[in-house]
Amino acid sequence: MVKDLPANTVERLSLYRRVLLNYPYQETPYIHSHRLAHLLKINPAHVRRDLMLIGFTGDIHKGYYIKSLIEKVGEAIDCRYIQKVAFVGIGDMGRAVAEYFNNANSKLKVAATFRLNDEPATQFMEVKCYNISKMKEIIRKEKIEITVLAVPQNFATEITKAIVHAKVKGILNFTSMHLQVPPEVHVENYDMIAKLEKLAYFTNKDTCPAEGDEQ
Questions:
Q1: Directed axis angle between helix 33-40 and helix 7-21, to 10°?
Q2: How many independent structural domains does the chain possess?
Q3: Do residue 13 and residue 115 come from a single domain?
Q4: Same domain, residue pair 66 and 91
Q5: From residue 104, how far is each of 11, 88, 99 by CA, in Å?
Q6: Is 1 within the bounds of a domain?
Q7: Whole-structure pTM value
Q8: 157, 177 in Cβ contact below 8 A?
Q9: Strands (E) located in 26-176
């Protein structure tokens, strides 16, 4: 793992790998930075800078050798051991992500999901879904390091305290709450409401009347 990479670089490296894993590199083994940038709709300079930070270079004529690039990204951003993840209150989305990671050659494994209702425990692809009352016990037992939090706002503070108390190292926060956690717990916020409103703006900005226009 390469230490102290910028957060945006880590995120883009993950995207590069995901795109390249689905790229026909058996037939086309090399790719240029401008082609990879085009697939992700980003600036080619970002691609070149990111790959320079992890010490990966390409051929000036052929581009980057894709198989080696995929391996290099893994060496740069993946932990050496499997890190376990839990989904808290996320239902079908948790199962979909579990299917992706637990079928892929990934260093992340979805080990458990938790729900707020009182239905009996269920299982999906060897991933059990527990009642939230079992959360601290299961997180400690399974040595889960990362949680994805997607619960109603009025539950977020209490559940976050329980997650922190269970010694989780990272939280992906899908709630609209600003989580109060100790400095050793890393939080990534994903504000779905803001994302939806942004999407609504861009899908309607050419058809909705401007402010002050007559209806």
A1: 90
A2: 2
A3: no
A4: no
A5: 18, 22, 8
A6: no
A7: 0.79
A8: yes
A9: 30-31, 64-65, 83-88, 108-115, 122-124, 127-131, 146-149, 170-173
Q: What is the CATH number of the domain that holds 28?
A: 1.10.10.10
Identify whether 49 is part of a domain.
yes
Residue-by-residue pLDDT tens, the chain, 215 positions: 898 999 999 999 999 999 999 898 888 999 999 999 999 999 999 999 999 999 999 999 999 999 999 999 999 999 888 899 999 986 666 667 777 776 666 788 888 889 887 665 666 667 888 889 999 999 999 999 999 998 888 899 999 999 999 999 999 998 888 899 999 999 999 877 778 878 888 888 677 665 555 55
Same domain, 70 and 87: no
Helix (H, G, I), strand (E, B) or coil at 133: helix
Query: Which pairing describes strands 127-131 and 108-115: parallel, antiparallel, or unpaired?
Result: parallel
Which residue reads 């709450």 in tokens? 177
Q: Which domain holds residue 24?
A: 7-77
Residue 192 is encoded by which pair of tokens?
A: 């779905």
> Which 8-state DSSP code applies to residue 59?
B
In a domain, 61, yes or no: yes
CA-to-CA distance for 34 and 32, rounded, in angstroms? 5
